[in-house]
Design a protein that fits this description.
Blueprint lengths: L3 H14 L3 E8 L2 E7 L5 H15 L5 H6 L8 E4 L4 E8 L2 E7 L5 H17 L6
Antiparallel strand pairs: 1-2, 1-5, 3-4, 4-5
C-alpha cells in the first residue's frame, strides 16, 4: 500500500496544528493503515470506528458520486461533528486519505456552521437535538 503522500501530509499537519491532529488514515480498497494516531486515542477503538466510517465515505470518491454533483472533480469532503472534524480526500477509486482533527482547528468554519444551524433551527425548532 502506497502511503508516502499520507506520511508527508501527516507530518505537515502535525507541524501545522500539533496535538489538534487526532489521526491520519490511508486506505486502498478494503485495507487501511493508521499513518498517525495521537497517543491519547485508543487504537483498537479507533480501528473499529475507522472500519465503519470507511464503509460510508469511500463511496464519495466514485465516478457515480462525482456525476451526482456536476461541478468538476471532487477534491475533499468535510464532516463537522461536536468532537471531531473529518476531512476526506478521495485520490481515486477506493483510494484516499482521511484526516481527523480537533474542532478547534476549524473555529471559523464551526462558527459559520453554528450560525447557519441557528437560522435553520429557527424555522425547524423540532429538528434541534
Amino acid at each position: 500500500m502506497k502511503n508516502q503522500i499520507s506520511k508527508s501530509l501527516a507530518s505537515y499537519l502535525y507541524n501545522r496544528v500539533g496535538e489538534l491532529l487526532r489521526g491520519v488514515i490511508h486506505y486502498e480498497h478494503d485495507e487501511f493503515k493508521l499513518v498517525y494516531l495521537r497517543d491519547d486515542i485508543r487504537e483498537q477503538r479507533y480501528r473499529e470506528d475507522v472500519t465503519q466510517m470507511l464503509g460510508r465515505i469511500k463511496q464519495e470518491g466514485t465516478t457515480e458520486e462525482e456525476q451526482s454533483f456536476p461541478f468538476g472533480e471532487l477534491h475533499a469532503t468535510i464532516r463537522a461533528f461536536d468532537e471531531t472534524i473529518f476531512m476526506h480526500f478521495p485520490i481515486g477509486e477506493q483510494i484516499g486519505v482521511v484526516v481527523a482533527l480537533e474542532p478547534d482547528v476549524a473555529q471559523n468554519l464551526n462558527s459559520f456552521i453554528d450560525d447557519c444551524l441557528d437560522h435553520i433551527y429557527e424555522e425547524y425548532p423540532s429538528m434541534k437535538s
